[in-house]
Predict the structure.
Amino acid sequence: MTSATVARWAATYEMVVGLEVHVQLKTATKIFCRCSTDFGASPNSNTCPVCLALPGSLPVLNEHAVDLAISAALALGCHVQPTSIFARKNYFYPDLPKGYQISQFDKPLATDGCLQIGTRSDGSPINIRITRVHMEEDAGKSIHDRFPSVTAVDLNRAGVPLIEIVSEPDMRGSDEADAYLRSLKQILEYIAVSDVSMEKGSLRVDANISARPVGETKLGTKTEVKNMNSFSGIVRALEVEFARQCGVLDAGGRVEQQTMLWDANTDEVRPARSKEGSHDYRYFPDPDLPPLIIPIERIDRLKASLPELPAARRARFHDAYPNLTPYDIDVLTAGPGIGTYFEHVARLSNDAKTAANWVMGDVLAALKTTDQTIEHFSVRPADLAELLNLVRDGVVSHTAAKQIFGIMVKTGDRPSQIAEREHLLKVTDDSALAAWIDEVFAELPSEAQRFLGGERRLQGVLVGQVMKKSKGSADPKRVNQLLAERIGT
Amino acid sequence: MTASTGSLSELSAAELRDSVARGDVNPRRAADAAFDRADAVGARKDGLNILLYEDRGDAHRQAADIATQRDSGESGPLAGVPVIVKDNISTTTLPTSCGSRILEGYVSPFDATAVRRLREAGAVIIAKSNMDEFAMGSSTENSAFGPAKNPLAPTRVPGGSSGGSAASIASGIVRIALGSETGGSVRQPAAFCGVVGVKPTYGRVSRYGLVAFASSLDQIGVFGRTVDDAALGLHTIAGLDPLDSTSAAEPVVQYRDAARGSLTGVVIGRPREYFPDDLDPRIREKCDASLDALKSLGAEIRDVSLPHTDLAIQVYYIVAPAEASSNLARFDGVRYGLRIAGDGLRGMYEATRSTGFGPEVTRRILLGTYVLSAGYYDAYYLKAQQVRALIARDFADVFTSGVHLLFTPTTPTPAFELGAKSDPYEMYLSDIFTCTANLAGVPAISLPIGRVDGLPVGGQFIASHFDERQMFAAAYALERRLGAGAHR
């Protein structure tokens, strides 16, 4: 399936996508017991009678998980319901210890949200409606490839709190699905309710996709695509499934409503063996858990404690820092930490554009090469601001500043200390500068001759040589003046 | 040792506790007396079959701890009192098999909250009692380990599902025993065995450690030889438990204080639906005698109506199996209990569950699965919940109309012969006067009010939510007034 094929279908068919996103909430303990949610503990060590479903055990709701779920729902513009109901989703599987998953069904935690994922060429917003946000518990893990001919079960994950965020089928193309997921991830990172990592499994996405002739307003028959493990995998799976459906429709066939599994290795979707759509989960309200009643005061308190969200921050940066380009703002608001760091540096250095350049360039590069997060970066924002101020005040050169920054990343020391220790303060002393000029003239006699003879365009070359000799510490402005004076004599 | 075994068995739970606290009775001797009595009445499999698991050595260890505490001047409210616990209530020292093959020999790593509270009060847990498998039944004939027999008439059933616990009181082994109720499983066997049985308000006693049958109906209950034994037992186990989200924060009063309560000014309702025309006239006569006695004690008797009563059995047999079908899904052979190999995963599930569950449990799982199925949910489960709300409102209406308590027969008949009810629906009807209290969540108590052909008849008080005190006050007064007549 080539991209060209997808592009060909796109002229005649429209892709319609709705996403179901599972997000693991960042709590210390599970949703219905006090077991740790630590990732990577030895199998079945984070378990107790409740999450093992021993006879007689009962669930007790983790209120912190509820707070995180409400925060997420509010950040997605949802209405948090004053009463929601936990329901049992019944099915047998070895990694589902109770034989049912505690979830929410017809009375979810929150409904009717909206996420803006961008703007159209005419400037109108692209809004994706969010149907519902509900809470549920995770299942354990079945491990099929660890022991020959048997399946092992690890229940450490059983009972880890999840929210499921269900969108309306409002996305028109894989690019919009991608934008939706990025926006969603960004918001959840801002409010710090989850690690939102597909690799770690704290973000999982199932896609409902259908195709319809361009211009048609009725929805076509959808399939559900599962088993994607990266954003790019989702985009690719949607394109492949879209092309498959278009092929079926174009040949006069009908798309069968079924679950498809994405195989990243073969770049294919294939029908899941068991027809999950035909499963009857026999949902009913869990009699072990009273209705979840959320007073308005709790919602207000959580709403008030929400941090600035990405869209608001982008708008504020746009107004507060007129020198920043839209691209700058996107980079500086990508994650919650980077913007906060930038603002700190900008405020202390009083130069937003320079601060932005440093943060977007050197800081991001250093984070990547040293595998640090901005929240725990070895260079504190106040120290970076000091470095910028040293450059502005002419105490160190720009070249020296880059060197100093490198040492700051390694040591966490303050820039002024480093500049002094490493002799990187700018040399403005005429006698030292004159000595370097003399040395350069001695090494490049012919250029010196021609320069002194009036060939002024050689001045840049000579300044460069002096800078090199001084290891960047010479004050280039003064070197230029001194060279100019020599012609004059 | 001042008391002989003979006189020891005459003591009430409170009297035994006081004797232990005074140092007159060694807790070990009290435990041994219970085991000796179990020997004497033939409580084991080859006899009445009312006990499933016991451990004399463990009982001696518990008794030794109580003796040590007593020596240091600390005696709990049940110090040294032997207690028998229904086999579906978790205990760390004895198996908890719910009368089922699928959990045969399973030992819980934790004590139920009710059991923990008994232990903290100084009780000595001596045995687990026989029961209908997973509490599904009204005769204890559905036990995978054979039917229990009524100690007063061994060709008859002791009632169920808590038949073993009721019989252990009736046969004089213990003064206090725990049972569980979903639709009458404490009160009905209490009535059949001529003992006192209490079903507390839903939420009054923690369900943590009670193996779930139907979570919205289940409640641990208490058997006593007397109202006072039951009051002492309930006070010990009642109260909020952070491990059970459905347990209530309502304050727990000392129910024994109700013993001195007067019935003057108390309005007792006689719901006409509980006295149908076809009620056994001998039972009607005993109830009328009790109502007369209550009247003579100062109570006002008022005819009342609970109009949705006739729908209770139908509602019960939709709600309870629905919840059971989900609650029993965990018995899948994967983590504990029975596992029978089969063809693949599905084969293992089928082999394990069809071998491990008996016919009544299987019937109810199928029934419950059916009523929750897509396309049937609204017609059955949802409708049943709506009718359940009407049944609860019947009680609320009566209790807000100035009526303090209701008095009814506990069962439509006395204990029936073993094997007499082969039709499941016939069996279900023996809970007709009890399952309403479970559906409404209100508390109720059954106490002996006389005998018919030598078989005990139970009378039932039903109170409003969390008003167990009022219920106990009436039961104490009636018990005192009937005196030995309650057992004639």
